[in-house]
Amino acid sequence: MKPLTCFVCCFFILSMSPLLSQTNYDESKVPSFEVPDPLMTFKGKKIKTVKKWEKTRRPELFHFFENNVYGKIPKTLKIDSYTILEQDDNAFNGKAKRKQVELSFKNNGKTLRYTILLYLPKNKVKAPVFLGYNFYGNHTITEDKAVFISSAWANNNESFGIENNTLTEVSRGKRTNRWAVEKILDAGYGLATIYYGEVDPDKNDFTDGIHSLLYQQDQNHPKPDEWGSIAAWSWGMVRAVDYFEKDPDIDASKVIAFGHSRLGKTSLWAGVMDKRFAGVISNDSGCGGAAMSKRKFGETLAVINDRFPHWFCDNFNEYNENEEALPVDQHQLLALIAPRPLYVASAQEDQWADPRGEFLSAHYATQVYHLYDKEGIETMEMPKVNEPIHNTVSYHIRTGKHDVTDYDWENYIKWANAYVK
Ligand code: GTR
Hints:
10 helices; 19% strand; 9-stranded mixed sheet; binds beta-D-galactopyranuronic acid; globular
């Protein structure tokens, strides 16, 4: 889309939608609210020990998010089989081993397949890996001609040459800017990525993707407390870890969940659902990710649930324009990752995702890390741009827009070296 058309169209949408025109970007207009205490049970009991946190409070918070925000997975579905479709021990300028591994799942007479693209450092026996979804297919993250093009449904994107919801050669390498593969390999890490549309196409249609494999008879939509697309994508990351445990080239005890934007919401929920993730990164995840909902700054629950009705479970709609009624907030989601290392990152020009709300969330989650004698974001004062705070819970805000940059990756690697043990 040309910039002018885009501007006109944005203006049109903004003036048409009462919800969007109410978007607040003014810190002085953030409502005052009580921050729900991660260490106080719903019945009002103060939690003072790791034992009580793990036995009582963590499960009740987890179930709240599961039943009311992301939706629960109806039943366990394990990998039926996996196939190494392709392997090359001399990929990426001779630096990496490349593998493309297809996982296959079967139920209800249906099959779902998705492919993990792996680049692993050649000189490492068992590599720690960053695992993250990509938006437009594995072939977009690299110029590497050997990477397969997915045949799954994709969002059209004129600048990437994606038409008729079909990925083609035209988009190869279009997203190399977001994936610092060489830096990751040089630091001794592997990269594993999956096209998210193979697990569940990103549209409000629940007849396709993984959901349809787990319906009961005559069901064609998840129940109000059952999984939306974010939980489905998170499930796909969890199953990838099942595969990593079988791959002798991967250190499955050092898998770091990474995600940007909607896929950052996804990496957070994956990290919460499965403690095998040794670390979690949220890059510009915003509303329904790291940002605190009750601040109503930038994107709000009503807006996100209206524009993307398939991302969260239907129960979450209850809090549209009703954030006050939420007994939790997103800092408590982050707290569920404790004591594992967590990195929350924002971008200065990404006000839609509420950088301050993402920062405060990391701060308020830190009290749970203290139970484990770990440090996080101790201050309530936001750091200056490009001045990261590195601890078990880390945070940075960088210059620039909603994106993933080399600066982000350099910091993730530094933090992983120091904290993901
Ligand atoms: C936006 C959405 C955000 C964020 C982003 C993305 O349109 O409002 O919550 O997830 O998409 O995923 O790129």
